[in-house]
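Narrative of activities, Objective 1.

The group set out to show that a structural description can be obtained from nothing but a protein's sequence at a throughput compatible with the screening campaign. Below is one input-output pair from the validation batch, recorded exactly as produced.
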Amino acid sequence: MLKRLYLHQFRNYTKAEFTFADGVNWIVGKNGQGKTNLLEAIYLLSTGRSYRTHQLSQLIQEGAPFFFLEAEVEKDGVLQTLKLSFDGKNKTFQHNATNYTQFTPLIGLIPHVLCAPEDLTLVQGAPSFRRKFLNVHLSHLDPLYLRHLVRYHRAMRQRNELLRKKTEVAIEPWEEAMAHSGDYLMKKRDEIIRDLQEPIRKTTSQLSSGSDLVEMSYLSSLPVSSPDQLKEHWRSQRKKELYVGSTLQGPHRDDVSFVLKGLSVRSFASEGQKHSVSAALRLCLWHHLHEVGHDLPIMSVDDFGAHLDRMRQSRFEKALSGLGQIFLTSPEVNPEIFPGSHVFEISDGSEVLKVSSP
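Output recorded for this entry:
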């Protein structure tokens, strides 16, 4: 459970501190007051990355030299502290009294599933968005997956550099490293998609009252299944890839497909259906993270109630009940949906963000 969150010079938060409840936490206020920024801070403490920008410098409040976040998390009955700061050049991380130069060892400390309007890119965006959701989810579950992901991309960058220089000298060690790590990535991705196939069918059906039954499958860019086959593939493709200066196939080109009634959700589903699929996917990820990791992940929903029709929204609300600690952003609160929930009303002051809680 995320018990306390302190923000300093983060986005429009000059200085603010929140003490959260263990159930539903409503974050309400007019547009532009910082509701989404709060969820972004939680996501950043969970993954080490923002889900809205690749430039952490954009998270520093205008005119400030740095931002600082501090969270108190109760995990296994023990209160733990996580701190993160960035000054435009250097990131610093601290877990309890231990300092880290990278966030990698801290992934999984705050298991978190975020459902946001940007999730529409999961079903209608480029394959890179779907690879990202696989990478983030698997990294929470398996630290070895994250290490292989880093190693694969590091080796591929070296191979690509040699390809751009039109030389095969010393290329084989990089291909061997890519094959070893790439095989692990592909097998874990295939495994998780298989695990999610039946849950996504059931959840899309539940949210749509039986009208939508979405199939999910893993699309590998390579029809190979072992490190040796991967090495042989890249060796056989060198001539072509020396010409283009880039590795054309591999885990960095994989994709995930969503199919409804035999047709691509990306190309043929309505906007409402796409939002419904992305919401179902996040629910499935929450349950999978809980089943495998045993902790109750945090569930966040940005712009709650804005993108689903009344029937799907009602079923989504029912599915959220009992998920543990939940954060919802909305212009206003509906106390009838989750009775007894805590409400934080946010308004953007000139220096201190005003927060109220009953």
